[in-house]
Amino acid sequence: MPRGMARGSPLRPLRFSKSYDFNLSNRPGSCRGATCGRPQSKAGGHRSRPYILQHDSWVFVVNRQFKMPHGQIEMVRVRFAPSPTGFLHVGNVRTALFNWLVARRDQGAFILRIEDTDAERSRPEYEKQLMEDLRWLGLDWDEGVGRDGGSGPYRQSERYAIYQQYAQRLLDGDKAFRCFCSEVELEQVRQQQLARNEMPRYSGKCRNLSPADVAPRMKAGFSPTLRLRVRPGTVGFSDLVFGRIDIDTFQISDPVLLRSDGSPTYNFCCVVDDVLMKITHVIRGDGHISNTHRQILIYKALGAVVPQFAHLSTVLGPDGQKLSKRHGATSVEEFRVQGYLPEALVNYLALLGWSPPEEGKEILDLQEIVRQFDLSRVSKSPAIFDIAKLNWMNRSYINRKPSDSLVQLAEPYFVSAGLIPAQCSTEVRAWLARVIDAVKTHVDQLAQLPQETAIIYGFESDPPELDADARSALLMYEARMVAQEFLRLVEECETVTPEAYAEILAQVKAATRQKGKGLFHPIRAALTGRGSGPELERLVPIYEEGSRLTLPRRVMSCRERLRAVLGSL
Predict the structure, then answer these.
(1) 278 tagged catalytic
(2) Is the terminal CB of the chain with fewer CB neighbours within 10 Å at N or C?
(3) What is the mean pLDDT of residues 36-61?
(4) Based on the domain organization, do 488 and 535 belong to the same domain?
(5) More confident call, 281 vs 50
(6) Strand partners, 247
(7) Distances (CA, A) of 530 to 104, 454, 472, 473, 499
(8) Is 488 part of any domain?
């Protein structure tokens, strides 16, 4: 491949460090952001057909697929590879989301791989939970655990024989060597290097052992590690977020591939898996940048194509520190329990480090995000997790949610709070929909709904406890007259229907000569015990209908509420 040329991905425009002669020819398809010298349309964009860029035996298709040598077409393949050692947290799920978005935008494959080589900390329940979390968020995978795509198994603990096979291949090709240095010896050398203010690194003691040196040690039962043979020079890569990163291989030395007990190291497993699963783009947290140069050396030792890398900045709390439990909920499970909607959480996480093309627009459904997402718009600056903004976004999604869907999601919270029966009738569910519709603009999370509906259920104390605003209002003579006249007229009604309520209001207004706040505020205070809340036009029919339902916690009618409040003064 010509130097400086990307592997044909549309994730970043193709750039060339020097000139090449290309044969250009039109082919059906689409072109996205490639620097290919194509004619522009009148609107300033590329015409609908891309050019095929040819150089020697290489053919590069500038669209969402790219061609490899010998004409083999490769689709974009990305992977999410969590360790099942805990719950899926914000940083991990954002990584999963960005991988999923790249796969969906480019009609590629999203692969779920489980890196469970830490046998002591890995738990089946965590693996199950993370898969449930991904499904809840709508991040389905095309192949991986539970969905074979021909590259399995997809748990690293089930791939040890594969790692041994590739380790032997490197050893046979003199790309790796056995090291017999003990942990004690390695630590002694490390301390000596630190004392000389040198960078700790492997001394290379066993790098040049001959077969004659190795054989007797093996026969004597020594258990060596296997190290990659690294030659002097530089190694680097062009990160799709951070740009070019080169280092001297002196800093890497000869990394361990297999430990003395035969178990593979993370870097070796990761590369072998990515090669065999034909991963084209590795998108992960920036904590892995330090691993990437070692992994590139392993790719090259295996004779494999090095994928493109994109490292995502760390997610920080509002205080600028790494996001942790002290900042509140951090796991997907916690957000789900608290009543955040998956579409709101996905929308918010997408904006952690990525900015959409249309400035100022932040409420985006998943399909909009897929269409607009591009790694070239991902920032390398740390992303700040702002719970207030997430709450605002979740409130927006709650208010946009269709009533029947919202009731279905909110019902468990009301059952748990003992406000509705576990087995709801059609009448109760329809009433609950009106209750939620009346108070939903006041909540950030579904879990807050039962508390917010306290204004609807019966008073918890006798006499009822009024807030300061309601009590002070009802202590005024004019306000008391309005409330008492309202009660007198309600007593004359068998049921206060919306029509009856409107007629009663008109009669109270005429009798007391009050209007506006002087009319409505005393009625609100006497009916609800609060100085503010949902519109009375919504509350009155909710009170009346709820009082006729059989519920675990009783709802009082308008008449009963007025008697209780005015009788307590």
Answers:
(1) no
(2) C
(3) 35
(4) yes
(5) 281
(6) 235
(7) 50, 11, 11, 10, 24
(8) yes
